[in-house]
Amino acid sequence: MKVLIADKFEKAGLEKLQAMGCQVTLDADLSGESLRGAVADSECEALVVRSTKVTPDIIDAAKNLELIIRAGAGYDTIDTAAAKAKDIRVCNCPGKNSVAVAELVMGLVLALDRRIVDNTADLRNGVWNKKGYSKARGLKGRTLGIVGLGRIGYEVAKRAAAFDMHLIYSDVVDQTAYEKELGIKKVSFEQVLAEADFITLHVPGGAGTKHLIGGEQLEIMKPTAFVINCSRGGVIDQQALAKAIEAGKLGGAGLDVYEIEPLATDKEFKDPVANVAGVYGTHHIGASTEQAQLAVADEVVRIIDTKMKGSAPPNCVNM
Ligand code: MLT
Predict the structure, then answer these.
(1) CATH homologous superfamily of domain 2-94+290-308?
(2) What residue ranges line ligand 1, CB within 6 angstroms?
(3) How far is the centre of ligand 1, averaged over its atoms, from the C-alpha of 72 (Å)?
(4) 246 in catalytic set
(5) Pick the catalytic residue: 151, 166, 284, 299?
(6) Which ligand 1 atom is nearest residue 286's CA?
(7) What pLDDT, in 10s, does the model give residues 175-185?
(8) Could you confirm whether 202 is annotated as catalytic?
(9) Please, which contacts does 68-71 make with residues 24 or more away whose CB atoms are closer than 8 Å?
(10) pLDDT tens-digit map of 27-80
(11) Which atom number of ligand 1 is nearest to the Cα of residue 288?
């Protein structure tokens, strides 16, 4: 099978694909027009992407393409309908990076409570401020509200339980099977907003969740609450978030994702939200641990292997 990988990809996964007899082309710099050209010229049967967007014109240019694989859980960067119209299956790798994302969420929870980033920045500037930084509220007994108790939400709950946090969640899907094991209670979305000291969002991106957290929802939150978003940028109205933090209506936010994100190859980030005091931002790295990327690469290999053996590829999201 001819495979085009248009993003960074684990070497181990690449070697497995080659050992299976795949003709693999890897070019992490492809995007937009150059990806369109590469898809047409390579006559690839499978296209593997991570951050790279797959738009209808790229899909139109494909001659032999049968499979698009998103090397991650979310697939909002791929036009699944355009792929379906050409009978191209889109598959993802759900669950393979959930632990990595949950670990970053816990990192942000701890960092926000202890103001670790500001501590470090001050020390680097030669400032000693033990008094100012001695006001953390602590995690034990604080309420963590999880919006979306899917695979990532589940892993967050497990870790937060180890910190003796009180756990509540809201979800449009029935997750009651996990409640006893996690010691978590289902409440309404509004109750999560009103009661939680930390609110972490684990919902898919796209039109259905756009600005799920906007001005109205931020008004409901405690003025000491922290919001954490390691899902998709559009889920939070960033302007409303910045306004709420600056007005002292919210404790702060931990953001790994943004409404407008640079391409993987870009080197600049000019979003004003990064400069709001009280916002701790990371570079959409939730899924980026070695463990997670190896697991994702193995899943990509499994999907291609299944397809090569003549069966329907697993995790298809558009048929
Ligand atoms: C995901 O959808 O799993 C993540 O956004 C993956 C990534 O960062 O590439």
Answers:
(1) NAD(P)-binding Rossmann-like Domain (3.40.50.720)
(2) 50-51, 72-74, 97, 284, 287
(3) 5
(4) no
(5) 284
(6) 8
(7) 999 999 999 99
(8) no
(9) 69/93, 69/300, 69/303, 69/304, 71/7, 71/9, 71/296, 71/297, 71/300
(10) 999 999 999 999 999 999 999 999 999 999 999 999 999 999 999 999 999 999
(11) 8
Taking the centre of ligand 1 as the mean of its atom positions, its distance from the CA of residue 297, in whole angstroms, is: 13
What ranges do the domains of the chain cover? Answer: 2-94+290-308, 98-281
What length is written for the chain?
A: 319
**Chain segment 230-244, per-residue pLDDT in tens:** 999 999 999 999 999
Of all atoms in ligand 1, which is nearest to the CA of residue 50?
Answer: 9
The partner residues of 22 in beta bridges, in order of sequence, read none
Q: Residue 189 Cα, ligand 1 centroid: separation in angstroms?
A: 25
Mean pLDDT of the chain: 97
Which residue type sits at 146? I
pLDDT at 266 over 90: no
User: Do residues 215 and 236 lie in contact, with contact meaning Cβ atoms separated by under 8 Å?
Assistant: no
CATH architecture classification, 98-281: 3-Layer(aba) Sandwich (3.40)
Per annotation, catalytic residue among 36, 70, 202, 232: 232
- Report the separation in Å between the CA atom of 74 and the middle of ligand 1, taken as the mean of its atom positions: 6
CA pair distance 69, 86, nearest whole angstrom: 15
Nearest ligand 1 atom to the CA of 284 is 8
Tell me whether domains 2-94+290-308 and 98-281 share a fold. Answer: yes
Report how far ligand 1's centroid is from the alpha carbon of 59 (Å). Answer: 21
Tokens encoding 149? 């108790």
pLDDT for 265: 80
Q: Residue 273 and residue 29: Cα distance in Å, rounded?
A: 27
State both tokens at 270: 């000019």
Q: Is 261 a catalytic residue?
A: yes
Average pLDDT over residues 200-216: 97
